[in-house]
Known about the structure:
With 308 residues, chain A is α/β, with parallel strands linked by helices.
Amino acid sequence: MLVSETASEFDITTTYHKFLHDDPEITMPVAAIESLVTLLSLTRPQTSSELVTVLTKASATLKENVRNSVSLSAGCDLFLRFVLRSTQDTANWEACWKHLVDNGKLFLERARKARQEIAKLGSRFIRDGDTILIHSMSRTVTSLLFHALERNVRFQVVVTEARPDGKGVAIANILREKGIHVALISDTSVVWAMDKIDKVFVGAEGVAESGGVINYIGTAQIALMAKGAGKPFYVVAESHKFVRLFPLSSSDLPGENSSLQFTSDISSSIQAPDIDFTPENLITSIITDIGILTPAGVSEELIKMWYD
Amino acid sequence: MPDVFPLADALVSRLKRRELHLPAEIATATVQVMLRFVSAHRWSTVPQLIADTRAIGRLLQDAYPTENTAANVVRRVLALIREEERDEDPARNDTHMFSLLSSVEPAPSSKNAQELKPYIIQAIQEYADEIVSVNDSICALAVDIVHQGETLLTPTPGSETLLKFLLRAAQKRTFTLLITECYPNNTDRVGRFAETLSAAGVSVVIVPDAAVHTLISLVGKVVVGARSVMADGSATAAAGASIVCEAAHANRVPVVALAGTYKISPNQPVDVDALIEMGGPESILPFSNGNLVNSLDVVNPLWDFIPSKFISLYITNLGGFSPSFVYRLALDSYKADDVDL
């Protein structure tokens, strides 16, 4: 897995992208954590403050150099808080360093288990005869659907095309290969389909402090439609995606392209942002590996992590 | 382990016959069964004890599937057993988010099964005491909730907790209470409820069920005795409660629901119909009316489902909580492994 042999050649951004590329199952926060673990294995800090400085610098570099850094910053922050907490609690910071360097594989394994745990918890929400709407690629959502399928629940799925990347087509095929009946609809048809839908499930790139979610573009408008039609809207996300941001609307999200581009130039292209923000009042429950939370529960976990 | 069941058998048949139907009675009976079971049953390892306890929990749950209390008490007892085994400090307030990175697995207790037994029994005994004092703890908050000269409305005159709560309030406060007539299942209880409170100096008015929307604007608060509380903050209560809470919500009248912690279920209300107990048709259509009975279907739900958005505040024996916080009470009381018994 190592990208470079020594600390001097090490580039955190390249390592991060390599983790994401090599393992299709890995999530962005976990890839960030694994990159930081790799960095730690190459540097041999002499003091606990050096350890913290190295990590702070690297995560700042990572956040700066990756477009759409919301998700990975959740992983960086979790890792940094964990290190800070461990170096405070025990005088033996070297034990903490060794634990982190030795257990990179274990963290991957735990992240995989978290997804299974979510699938187990969340598949209870799917009942016989349900029609489920899903939007954009989320491995937690698909594994939840597969888990329900293994339990012999009979349900059907409406998948949105999810432009601009259009991954809905691929998701529909993944589900159909397992024998699930799927209706693939265009993003503009969600309201048209809404009265036939029982529940909505979406994944998340990050879950904000308010309990609102940052996810692939189009999630917020589906949540609004679900609210309007009185259908439950469930977010499925691992707790390592909880991030200390408090956006009030999509325009508060980090990244370029956050404002409308007005122009009279005929040749200009369509504006297509990557992510949007779904406010917490549109969300029924957040299904996580640490239990099924109301949106208010997210801030509680984050407060425990940051201010304990 | 068939020898574990005789202890629970009596309770199981009483539940099946619906002889026990008040959550408070069910909680007390269940915790007593748990106490006797842990003391008398021959168990040599904790995993065996846990497995047998769960088996009893399943029996009790199946005996009365729409009622959560028995299963909740068993889940709490299981959590107590697991805490004793793991030497856990329940006050430890750490986020679960670190579980991805943490190094320490909780250490198994150094004590062996026989050494653990008295500790487990003591923990269950304390829990039993807590259940007995639930109403007292809830009533202690009555004066804070009921204001001087206020008009209250309740759709659940069948609730013992609510009666005690209002009686306690009446010691310090003068207030008016509107009670819905609760046709058809609770009409006889309305009279007894009204009489008791009237004797305590409360001015009581019984109003027709259909008048709730008209009268709600006169009301300062709606008080509801909850039957069970789901993890998302929704509740079940006596039939007719939901429409009252909906009317209150539409008119911005606060709804206060009373519930002992043993009513809090770790489950989400995925299938609402499965939470509602159905009653017999005779209270609506007497069997003496033979021709009609033969040609009609009568649907008589005993309970109602109240979505969390209609409830402003829960008063429990641990204090007052917002509905959005109920999931946390459930997470703290029960272990994730015991949600499915």
